[in-house]
Amino acid sequence: MGLRLERRVDRPRWLTVAVPLASVAVALFVGGVVIALSGNDAVDTYARILERGFTSRGAFTATLTAATPLLFTGLAAAAAFRMGVFNIGGEGQLIVGAIGASGAAIALGDSASGPVLIVAMVVAGAAAGAAWAGIAAVLRAYLGTNEIITTLMLNYLAINLATYLVFGSTSAWRELTGTGLMFPQGKKIPDAARWPGIDFGNFTVGLGFFLGTAIAIGLFVLFRATRYGFSVRVIGDEPRAARYAGMRTRRTILSLLALSGAVAGIGGASDVGGTRYLLDPKALGQAGYGYAGIVVAALARLNPLAVVGVSILMGGLANAGRALQGPDFPAGLVGTLQGLLLVCTLAGELFARYRVRRTAPTPATPGAAA
User: Fold this and answer.
1) In this model, does residue 361 exceed pLDDT 70?
2) I need a surface site. Which of 24, 113, 148, 265 has the fewest CB within 10 A?
3) List of residues 6+ apart from 277 with CB closer than 8 A
4) What pLDDT does residue 138 have?
5) Would you list the domain boundaries of the chain?
6) How many other CB atoms are there within 10 angstroms of residue 37's CB atom?
């Protein structure tokens, strides 16, 4: 007698809620075992993560700041993955978005008002990200090139481009006065271009997070209630049927990857306008926002609205890890918990899509032993 996986024809509604919750519970339990084996108290460690990530003074503001780039790259990955187009280039698209946004703010300078500068940064970041993703889109649509490889390679080109603009040239992105001549650094954007936030008393929500949430709602409506979203689902699930029905696959691939890149590019604009106020290639190159965004999209099961909540969770873990890092806090614990969340969620999704069936033993054929 053996076991086999059988695809579920109809999934009950309770399963879509129970599986994610059970996956998180299992991840926390396994994480607790790992913490205990490392010689630490699991309950105390989780309590400290909760406090420093969400409940202590100023913690939630820092968590939302950490969650904002993950929100944009998570939405970018979720948008592309819905059609089976694997955009691994969120990292590069965010970086070129930061280049475009900072360039727009520096070019306009003090001649424009704050709202005009912010809109220009968003538009420039979106355009730069869409154009960068468009390179891979054209190669995939017309030459059949694997977009995983092209978007991955474009990440390295993007960080090298940003590094050159700040450290290897005398471009407009580099500070050319004062200590900037001896110690290269990015040129700060005008004060009017800094993105504001809304103070809710105990915490502050930046404009970037509000914008990312609005984009998440827009993507949810786009994929669930429009003809374009229907085309994306059909092409992703049944590409042959889509071609037979006359759907324009190439055009959809181009537009979807451009949309994905534009969202990631706006994330770069948010990073410049709401966090760093300059183009910082070193920080962007080491942050890993693009790859973390893929994890966020997977945990959210490619649901744009769920990406908002998952990005807050991941941002809280990252924020707590930075705040608690020290000799009494297990090194690498936050990364381990994030990995466990991903593995358990993917395993839960597998059992949500398939059920385990026992297979009867194959009867022996008479005379086979002879």
Assistant:
1) no
2) 113
3) 188, 189, 194
4) 95
5) 72-198+207-304
6) 9
- Please check the confidence at residue 362 and state whether its pLDDT lies above 90: no
Euclidean distance between CA atoms 136 and 85, whole angstroms: 11
Q: Are 317 and 334 spatial neighbours (Cβ–Cβ below 8 Å)?
A: yes
* Beta carbons of 316 and 63 less than 8 angstroms apart: yes
Provide the β-strand partners of residue 5. Answer: 356
Residue 199: strand, helix, or coil: strand
Position 155 scores a pLDDT of 96
* Structural contact between residues 130 and 268, judged by C-beta atoms closer than 8 angstroms: no
The two three-digit tokens of residue 147, written as one number: 């977009």
C-alpha angle 106-215-221 in degrees, rounded to nearest 5: 155
pLDDT-above-70 percentage for the chain? 94
* pLDDT level of residue 226 (50, 70, 90 thresholds): very high
Contact 223, 229 (CB under 8 A): yes
